[in-house]
Amino acid sequence: MLEVLAPLEQWVSRHVSLPTALVTPLVILATALLADGFTRLVIWRAAQWLSRTRSRWDDVALWAIRRPLWVGIWGVALIALTGLVGKRLSLTWVAAHAPTALWLFTLVMLGWFGIRLTREVERRLVFPPPRHPARPLDASMASAISKLVGALILTLVVLAALQALGMSPSGLLAFGGVGGLVVGFAARNVLANFFGGLAIHLDNPFKVGDWIRSPDRDIEGVVEDIGWRLTRIRGFDTRPLYVPNMMFGSMVVVNPSRMHNRRIKERIGLRYADLDKVASVTRRIREYLEQHDDIESDDLCMAYFQHFGESNLDILIHAYTRTTDWATHQAIQEAVLLRCADIATEAGAVVAIPARELHVAGPRAETPVPAREASATRHHDESPSSPPSSRRGTPPRRDSQDRDTDQDSDV
Questions:
Q1: Where is the composition biased (Basic and acidic residues) (predicted)?
Q2: What's the predicted TM-score (pTM) here?
Q3: 8 Å CB contact between 208 and 143
Q4: Which domains are assigned to the chain?
């Protein structure tokens, strides 16, 4: 590059009264300033103007090249000045490696531009212009494509940079073939997570923004990012949860965000005294559910007497709401349950509460005792010194005086 500027340096030194040593640096700086001004006035404003059009791709490359081009202009100027200084001061190593540094810097800028271009393309795939008829692509699929292309660009840049540094590509490939097994065995978990992330992008069991949960693991929340090694999930307690991608290959994942409807499944209990009103209540509830604007009438919609409970008659209410929004579903379910309670009240029934009826027996009535038996009982209780035989019912032995008295009374 300095050889190209040599004729210009000689022409300027003949027509302008400047030292020869300052001509080339000033030319380099002037060229960089002109390129920078052109970038700001033309490319940047053209990108802003094209972003207002209905076209989807006309400004993508301009937005992607803005920063790499600006950094590249001043980077090339700095490397050129460094090489010039090395040549003028006889710094052999600096002058000899300046072209290599310029080539490496160009590769880095090209790689940066390629990665920015893939991100801009990803953004346009997910968010097309407002007046563009194209349908937006799934964010997870666009992210997967962008990451694959970015990894490919990075690999090519690294191989080209190693070749510029004097390393043979065939040697690198040989090392990759021989050492690949060792590296793969040492980093098997990293590779498992990588292929797990690839499987998530290909199978698409969930995407960014979905609410997922795992019945066999304590995992539930909203997916925020699907990386090549980890998936970030934000729990409902706002704490982030980082799950290795290889775990999704061995666990069950439920994606409630993809449900078509939300279910209402509740039970209402009536008293046993309202058994004759159960049929009327269930019929009116079914009519109410079929006429409700927020209830999906094409799906299973029923209200039937289910079974005899311990303290109530259970009525099963089963229906699906048209919306899948959880807050809206809760509001609809609340309105349905309150209306069902009103229907039971209008039918003369009462919503039962858990209760038990306890029957308590009254005091035992005493049997009346005749007066003669009661007198004998008292006499018996007052003579505890009588012989045991008289207490057992055997008549007492009478002496001779008593027999004489009886004989006199008979005479």
A1: 396-411
A2: 0.54
A3: yes
A4: 2-167 (no CATH), 191-257 (2.30.30.60), 260-346 (3.30.70.100)
